[in-house]
Amino acid sequence: MHSPLTIHGSPFTFSHLIIIFESMKFSTEELIQGIQSGNKRLIAKAITLVESKKAEHRIQAEELLKKIMPLTGNSIRVGVTGVPGAGKSTFIENFGRLAISNGRKVAVLAIDPSSAVNKGSILGDKTRMEELAKEENAFIRPSPSSGFLGGVANTTFETMMICEAAGYDYILIETVGVGQSEVLVADITDIFLFLKIIGGGDELQGIKRGIMEMVDVIFINKVEQDNLPKAKNTRLELKRALDFIPPKEKDWKVPVLLGSALHNEGLGDVYQKIDEFIRLKKKTGRFEKVRTQQAEKRFDYWVQEYILAMMKRNNSMEEAYIQHKKNASAMVSNPSTEAKLFVEKFLKDS
């Protein structure tokens, strides 16, 4: 009988294998070849590279993203949000399998909530989407939100680029619950899907106006025979509320659909409505126009990120940054005033 493999006296586990794989260095060309060939391990490695904040990783990540750009842009990007317990993961799993049965390659970017205390996250979506994870034409990537405003990780947009380059033509982004800031998911997707459930008290109270203004399709989930009458009343209330909100897209009336993701009921209707919506946006020219605006917003975001990083790398500016931040947090003066003083100092000393 063979002795179990050990590392420093401890049994060799799958975790050790992950650590070994993560420590392996891959050239940009190797990563690109892996992405194009659909190698899920190298796709994951490329995403890890893009998510990294290390300076040397950022340089390679920029090179990678630049080279894969011609391979991107051929997907449908779907944002899926909803109140906690709305069944987002179940919906995405069964909807993803439906899309695959229709000849699609599906990538799921499941954004995991980060702890505000230790910045750690659960990253358990592959466990929650076991059946979808088994599909050859599916790729699931949980990423920590790291406290990023809007419920999406700060590199989700760039992760989508990698998935598109790998040939995934249907990208589903699951966000961390819902709230006023959550609507920022609409800034990186083509269609915004909101999941609602019955029984949350006032059916409209739990939905902020900002979400209602951004939503493209509403799906009332967990509908069964015993709650069908209440589900229909909820749909009626939502439709009435939508009548008072200016349409986001001309000639598009936001559909409010009923169904059960667990029992695969109503998912076909959602799939059809998404297809109709995308065809309408392309016909009116809004599809490309909105994507251009989204890219511009990402540019503005990264300008801010790089400027802040440059400031922090400057020793004298790092001290100033800490002091002004301390003044802001202690409310010695207005945070916006402290920010303005810090930026002015940086520009003067540059």
Automatic annotation (TrEMBL):
Gene Ontology terms, MF aspect: GTP binding; GTPase activity
Highest taxon of the lineage: Bacteria
Record field: transmembrane: none
Gene3D superfamilies reported for this sequence: 1.20.5.170, P-loop containing nucleotide triphosphate hydrolases
Coiled-coil stretches: none
Cellular-component GO terms for this entry: cytoplasm
Family statement drawn from the similarity comment of this UniProt entry: Belongs to the SIMIBI class G3E GTPase family. ArgK/MeaB subfamily.
PANTHER family: METHYLMALONIC ACIDURIA TYPE A PROTEIN, MITOCHONDRIAL, METHYLMALONYL-COA MUTASE
Protein name: Methylmalonyl-CoA mutase metallochaperone MeaB
